[in-house]
Amino acid sequence: MSGVAPPGAEHSWQGLPAAQQPQWPDAAALRATVAELSALPPLVLATECDRLRERLALAARGEAMVLQGGDCAEAFHQISSGQVRAKVRTLRQMADVLSAGAGVPVVTVGRLAGQYSKPRSQPVEVRGGVALPSYRGDSVNGPAFTKEARRPDPGRLHRMYGVSAATLNLLRALAVEGFAPSHEVRAWNREFVASAPARRRFAPLLRRGVPVASGEVFTSHEALLLDYEGALARPGADGGLYALSGHMVWIGERTRQLDGAHVEFASRVRNPVGVKLGPGVSADEVLALADRIDPDREPGRLTFISRMGTERVRDVLPGLVDKARAEGLAPVWLCDPMHGNTFAAPSGHKTRSFDAVLDEVAGFFEVHRALGTHAGGVHLELTGDHVTECVGGLEGVGHEQLHERYETACDPRLNHAQSVELAFRTAELLAG
Ligand SMILES: O=C[C@H](O)[C@H](O)COP(=O)(O)O
Ligand SMILES: C=C(OP(=O)(O)O)C(=O)O
After folding, report:
1. Binding site membership of 420 for ligand 2 (Cβ less than 6 Å)
2. C-alpha neighbours within 13 Å on the C-beta side of residue 9
3. What pLDDT, in 10s, does the model give residues 66-85?
């Protein structure tokens, strides 16, 4: 079931089956937390969500590109000013490069200020014969393999609200102060290209006379914990409901059941909504998802985030895009080249290879080019730090280096250099 009703609110998703919800051990504590969160101010404004929907409408029409990226899982102890700035800097550099390649503006959406909850393949983790609940993100429990840490604690929902507010506060302050004006971002990219001989091939892209990406950074996260999302779902000026936990929310591959609570929630809020599509999805399911979430075919409302894996993208995606087009849908199509390309390194670390990530992006653009549809952009797990979590790239992170700075709370992220390099390689694809 999809959880606790905030006082005074009638939420149509309550009572429907909700996948991937924690087994909160203390129902009274959860109820109290939801009531408290419901009385706190929203984290974002409905008008900001509307503005993002307008920006995404441009991407749906091929007049803009989208860069959505950030941590797999934000972590409470990693919300320092330096880390947030590094992420924003990385996103800004990537947006500048993509804009240069595509010749259109880039809409930048962070996986930021709310990306604290994780769906898991297994509800339980077993180590040395001991079984404990899986880590589900800092909003639910802790990563340490102890009974205490893994116990879902509703007090963490409060902390998620607090750290999300702090992150948004910094983002807004940076925007007011004019952090990283376009010419500075371009200078960082020139420095990136000049700093290694293998990167010099990217220099011509920076000489293209095209619009430079705007400094706006919107926030997004997976709308997974419906108790939290419900507490922050509030009416906008016209009375329509908005998920005011972030500007954009998405529904994951594991929670997009048509009769489930997450799809119902997504259908009720006015925000721009993303839906992840893995290789097992059928074209009929894609159409049904669009009918539920975007019955009015409102440009910018619906984003499909394809995460097929490099082996499947060229086989599976064409049928979906073709059918969607034939039925008159005009979603934004994004490529998430991370979630279908995860594997275990010999050391046991979960990792992803830069080449596989790039190849899935290439496959995604090939499919859209062949069909004459708009490839809207990319959705990536990345960080601004110099971590060693994904292998490959010109810097050549090897399997033997993974242990050096493996800091992710869940899945492996591209580091700063791999992220900017991926933007350049994608821009090369776009520039043809
Ligand atoms: O980020 C996505 C999922 O939460 C993650 O890939 C699940 O990982 P698991 O298969 O280790 O549970
Ligand atoms: C869980 C995620 O992805 P997916 O639903 O595609 O597996 C994610 O993007 O964090």
Report:
1. no
2. 23
3. 999 999 999 999 889 999 99
